[in-house]
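QA checklist item 7 of 12: single-chain prediction sanity check.
[x] sequence parsed
[x] length recorded as 360
[x] structure emitted
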Amino acid sequence: MNFMDFGLKEAADNRKPVKLFKKMRKRPPFARDFDFFCDLPVLTSGNQQYFCSIAPKTDPEMESTLLVLAAGMASRYGSMKQIQKFGPGGETIMDYSIFDAREAGFTRVVFVVRKSFEEDFRSIFEPRLRGKIRTDYVTQELEDYLDGRQVPPDRTKPWGTAHAVLCASRVIREPFAVINADDYYGKGAFEKMAAFLKNDCAENLYSVVGYELGNTLSEHGSVSRGVCEVDQGGYLKSIHERTKIFRRDGKIVFEDGAKEGKLEPQTPVSMNFWGFHPGFFEFALKQFQEFVDRNAANPKAEFFIPLAVDDFIGSGKGRVLVIPTRARWFGVTYKEDAPVVEDSFQKLVQQGIYPSRLWT
């Protein structure tokens, strides 16, 4: 049976999803060898016509996926920091994260990007990563997963990190880790997360890497952090997204509207390094649509991962293990952070932790 008999626009290969348009009442004979990701009817004329994304089947027990959130607009930074070069060989922060993930045993990386820069993004990372780790791409757009709802006319900001994760449901069927594109997490964090996904992750057990707040601040302005409350067993009791945390007079404080509070340097915080079971997608979809209904009139409201996770815990559906680390974060919240990041990578190379050129 030839794939083209079913209207495939391009031949299936071992790395990228391919698309098909086909009027069909049931899956074609080769379906047993493929995963169908989006069996969504797009128009009806006689027989149902479907748009499907398919990819060669993989064994979920053998697959270990890293999801990289790279669709943010970087409003405080002012440019596309996701692809800015910081390493001595022209590496981005993402390059180091993917390198660490690959060494820890991850076999695939999925990027969440926007359509407006997808091609430019691919042109940078495909030559570097080809033959080293499997890659897939999904886009995050305002229209995604609204289920008939309209995008508010004054909405330009992406719906947030949990919505970005939801977009990856098109291509992920196995336990997976989530990271930001513009944060450096450290080798040890990837090793611990890989072990969790392989040995412990379940539909009722997720994880988050917990960093000490004092190791995650910028000297050039406020930062957003998911502040964690952890029980004696090491599980997350609750998580609150604080969008304005900074140092003042030697103290760490946060502002939340008119409210202000203090935080200790050892307070565990999330840097958006999560471990999820694919069952999270179904839960997040319901939460997102309820979020949109509540916040249609607020163009700046965002559906953050901590919001979804807090609801997951509060609903009694499961627990979230906090994986502690004392690693020092660095990243680029502000342009003034860039020289610090460049210097940090240079020191790591000098210490022999990374080669001077990662992918050669």
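[x] summary fact logged: The mean pLDDT is 83.
[ ] second reviewer sign-off
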